[in-house]
């Protein structure tokens, strides 16, 4: 008898087999009355993680009145999609995704998202209350600057030149966050004062900005991105947990601004990697002083939060061997022996999910390695660094396991 035998039996006792999307009923029902439903993924390049999240999201929107989907993507690019699905941008779904041109573009410019965007546009066409699609990430410093200038040219042209002058501080860094980070840390050259001056001025005038087509929200969140991105790039060179914590705290702040814009009864669906939505306190991230979206939301909103993790035993994935390089379809090897994914596979080589509750949490209370694949990936070295020690039943409220997965289908690569 090995140490996983009891765990495998517990999985057999509590897992629900997935043969069709209708088999996800219990997860939809469990999440339906929550305010924040977080849907994870074990990689940024796996088709089934996207399609299953899409199916759950469609039902939460159509059957339970959820207000929007917020994703681990750039605000400006996602806002283009948001404008399209609400009829403010007279183009087509394929064109709306062309704004996802910054590496790794395949995360959102893929066939799986294309189908969801088409569904959202069709839904909004007849819905009493339109749903949105927003990006929560912090990376779009230059794109957000450009969006702020574009908006001011329309609504406050008298302020454009002063804002451009302030933003010119960033010109020497050639739209590369790492260049700015190095300059700020090693040479003491940063743009903090310029950013803060502009953002204080924008905030003071916020109430005067038009609300049509969410113009005020767009300006507010782009301003927040500028503030936090500048802080993030300064922190990233120093090492430690600060840059990670700035990023995840920013994503919560952006989410809350969208929630406020949608009113007190708003309900959010959040798509992010497991490392962001699974409570950091249930992993070794806590030992390194790292917090994440899942932890922050649980601490602030408690029982109104529902987190669903995802995983796979083997298959293929879209990823790159180095940041910024070309991407390829890579083989995902069988899960590491003794890992959470290995135990799920041993319990039956089929798709399944588990709902964690007070009665069964203790059965899934041991610390196990839990696979995490990023946009940069080396399958041959996976066993050295791609498994996060986790108390799985404390990290998530439910877990979806797809035994064999396949890679995403990028549109523009």
UniProtKB/TrEMBL annotation:
One of its GO terms (biological process) is response to antibiotic. Pfam families: Erythro_esteras. InterPro entries: Emycin_Estase (IPR007815), Hydrolase/PRTase-associated (IPR052036), UCP036794_erythomycin (IPR014622). This is Erythromycin esterase family protein. It comes from Mesobacillus boroniphilus.
